[in-house]
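#struct-help
A.M.: can someone run this one for me? Single chain, 345 residues.
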Amino acid sequence: MLSVSTASVGEKQCVFERRQDTILGTKQPELLRGRALTFNDLCDDAIKHSEAENSEKQTYELRLRIEQLRPVFRLRSADSIRKNEVVEWLTEQAEEREWAATTRNRWQATFSLIFRVGMDNEKIERNPAARIRKKAEGGGRVRFLPNAEEERLRAAMERRFKEFLPHFMLSIHTGMRMSEQYGLRWKQVDFERQQVHLLRTKNGDPRTIPLNSIALAALIELQAGQPEPGTELVFPSLRTGDALQGSRGWFSTALDEAKVLDYTWHCNRHTFASRLAKAGVDLRTVAELLGHRTLQMVMRYSHLAPEHQASAVDRLVPAQGRVVTKSATGKSAAKKPKQTQTLTH
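D.P.: on it. Structure tokens below:
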């Protein structure tokens, strides 16, 4: 009787554990197979979605992040994953790896995409990452290249990576994102109109980028240097023939040799936008060229165009009330007369 009773208790314990496993979604693979949709299944669907909707570069980066996320929930049932579990993982990783707010938000967006695609495919009913509050990113830093640093960087490229110099010149003269630039195909380049047509950008909208003479020369040099005429890709890998995945390796080495600190490829966009602002280009046009839907992201460049702003407020002064003086730089500047004016209504 004792053995029977012990066996009975053991069976009840097994039943209890199976129920707990069902609730938590931690059943063994052989028990889950054919029964429940797993987190891994959602990851596979998210990658397929990106392959159909995004550039090769974006899909490549997404795949790298997803491969790190797969072990987080392993073969857990997709429906069993809760918001607090996602938040806990993001918090732990942010503290352990000292993530900036932008990095944490990027990983959160990856989680959200995985579950959103599952909902779009009608495989799950909720997205546990959808209502997680994002961390405030602020305006972000603005690091751009002064002329002296650009000269040193170009000289370093000339010595070590001359074949990559057109990559860099195209970047700082168009402001394209890395994924946009390295995903380019020649059919998107209009040499006659001097334009590049981006069909699918980060915010989902197409964008046309005008090419100045330096950007145009960079593209002509790239086309002339391709090993096989008629290659579809603007930036093919000489080793595999596929599109290059970015500037990894050579650019960081060139920065080190040029002693340019705290600078990344993404900062090329800041260089592009900052120089436009300094040249007096209005912020709406800067936003359009960068592919931003609103002015919020380009307001960080407004302080770089003080003379342009000053000329704007000077327009409030009637032409006959302006006087011309010489500024400290020797440039002419319009100012109001010093005498007091009486305003009549």
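A.M.: thanks! The chain has 14 helices and five strands.
D.P.: also worth noting: Confidence is low (pLDDT under 50) at residues 1-7, 12-17, 22-34, 333-345.
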